[in-house]
TrEMBL record:
Database matches in InterPro entries: RutC-like_sf, YjgF/YER057c/UK114
Taxonomic superkingdom: Bacteria
Stated name of the protein: Enamine deaminase RidA
Pfam families from the UniProt entry: Ribonuc_L-PSP
Record Gene3D superfamilies: RutC-like
Length: 130
């Protein structure tokens, strides 16, 4: 994959690219939005802990396709308040790490999810050679 960040544009606000080119011949995985809930049904209080669970779930889905965080081309995340952005970003940066090609990224503030305890939801598009 190739990061697309034109020099004529302002730089990204964090570790992401303005766009990502996916070469021909790659297979794609699109995850559903993942929520911060454990297999036992526990929902952590903090946005960072919820986001960490979201990314843990995403890792598991990608692993089933033989992929990992370095294969992520785009992240879409939703938080219920600006106050949750910092915690989300810490979990996101831990997930993205120091990948050689930062993914494209979208972060939206929404009014809520199916249950009021949820503060974060994350989905990704990943691509790997076929």
């Amino acid at each position: 994959m190739q990061s697309l960040t034109p020099s004529e544009m302002p730089p990204p606000f964090a570790n992401y690219a303005h766009g990502v080119a996916i070469p021909a011949g790659h297979r794609l995985v699109q995850t559903s939005g993942q929520l911060g809930i454990t297999a036992q049904g526990a929902i952590p209080e903090s946005a960072e802990a919820q986001a960490t669970l979201c990314f843990d779930h995403i890792r598991r889905v990608l692993a089933l396709a033989g992929m990992g965080p370095s294969d992520v081309a785009h992240i879409i995340a939703y938080v219920t308040d600006r106050a949750h952005m910092a915690g989300y970003m810490q979990a996101r940066d831990a997930f993205v790490g120091t990948t050689s090609t930062p993914p494209a990224s979208t972060l939206l503030i929404v009014s809520g999810f199916t249950r009021p305890e949820f503060k974060v939801e994350v989905e990704v598009l990943a691509a790997a050679p076929a």
